[in-house]
Amino acid sequence: MENSELAMARRAEAILTAQLQEHELALQARHDAEARYPDGPLVMERTRPPDFPEQFRYARFSYPYRPVRCAPFVAAQISLHSEERSEEFLFELRQLRDFDPEWFDNAFALALCLSLARHPVTGEGTHP
Amino acid sequence: MTDPVHPFFASLAEQLNRGATRAALGLLSFRSAPLREHLHTVFQSTPGTGDSFLADPVFEASFGWRLTEDTLGDLSGRFLHPDVVKALDKPSKTFAEEYTFSTQQHPYQHQLEAWQALIEARPARSVLVTSGTGSGKTECFLIPILHDLATELDTQTGGLTGVRALFLYPLNALIKSQRDRLIAWSEPFSGRIRYCLYNGETPREGKSPWASEVLDRKTLRANPPPILVTNATMLEYMLVRTEDQSILTQSQGKLRWIVIDEAHNYIGSQAAELTLLLRRVLHAFGCRADAVHFIATSATIADSRANTEEQLRDFLADIAGVPPDRVSVVYGQR
């Protein structure tokens, strides 16, 4: 597993963040000014705690762009912490994913990987 | 001793609660009047108590933006067209609460700097305004544009036909927020200064209750207003679509202002496409880059690094196709 994405993320996180940037640019290029980005107040609420990574809050963008961008990272955090969320929350996440599944799926995979890589390695095959 | 602050915050909380209640009930649109009334009563209870709609308000103190010594009234006639100052002081009544810029009010320092660069400097200068949310970035460019249009009105009877100012937004959702302000400050000109929000949702035909608003494509094409608020996608269409040709024909040589609002949202290929689009816009409108004021605003690219100013200047110079020495960078200062 030396060349797995996870191992790569542990060795050089920048490789994965560079991939994320490419996906971000692709997302931006797929939607023009007429696009209707869905809102996600519950998802955005989940980005507020201080432990949420600053770079994935996408605070540099105007608000309408942010829920779609933040959603995969919120979803990854929920998965890793095995949190249970309300139906309403999951519906909101699905709506955000539906807007651009390509972005969501790619970013979700990378977000999971980055988060796992930040956890201390406790043994072969051990998960946090 | 009476506490002047507490009543202010108390009334603010009430106001927020009232607005949120009205918005929520409006969105829910329950048909049952008793249910609406019941919810209205429940929602209106004091924030942070029982079943109240809003939690206890939390206020965060922040430093205000630096003010100028002059009031807006002091600038009337000396620097700004008196009709513009009058329109700001007494905007359309419907929007007076939110958009009155009183003659007694002191503009922010960065607003005055932007106005000076855009109104006084010859030849035309371009400006990049970078400042925080709520620092009045829109006023930085809208007031000089209204001043310019009001000055042109002095030389002619009737209203202005043909696009003088092009406002570009990266997303429709960001365009809508400008409508109220544009009506508030254009309406006092009784239809002589008009604007149109042109995007995919603009209806083919329609009539606005406001003299200053062009609501439909038919009027836009027949009698283009001096202010056109649009997005890059619509602008692309406008340059190639036969039915939009009349807008370009009637605006030949008249375009003097291009505003790129929320510029920080243009990243990657969109920024490159915008750059090329602006070159084609100048060509289609029959204008030279050095005769047009390019204005970009951004809330988030401000930084204290020494070379930031140069980077920002280069950013706008590249997009606009003007030399960097013709670009001023204006920072919001607290």
CATH class of the largest domain in chain B: Alpha Beta
Q: What's the CATH architecture of the largest domain in chain B?
A: 3-Layer(aba) Sandwich
According to DSSP, the number of beta strands of chain A is 0
**CA gyration radius of chain A, whole angstroms:** 15 Å
The total strand number of chain B stands at 8
**C-alpha end-to-end distance of chain B:** 31 Å
In N-to-C order, the SSE pattern of chain A is: HHHHHH
Q: What gross morphology of chain B would you assign?
A: globular
Helix and strand content put the structural class of chain B at alpha/beta
* Proportion of beta-strand residues of chain A: under 5%
Total helices of chain B: the number is: 14
Helix content of chain B: 40-55%
Largest interface: A-B, 16 and 21 residues
The largest pleated sheet of chain B is described as: 8 strands, parallel
Rg over C-alpha atoms of chain B, rounded to the nearest angstrom: 22 Å
User: Based on the structure, what is the oligomeric state of the protein chains?
Assistant: heterodimer
Helix content of chain A: 55-70%
Name given to the CATH homologous superfamily of the largest domain in chain B: P-loop containing nucleotide triphosphate hydrolases
Poorly predicted spans of chain A: none
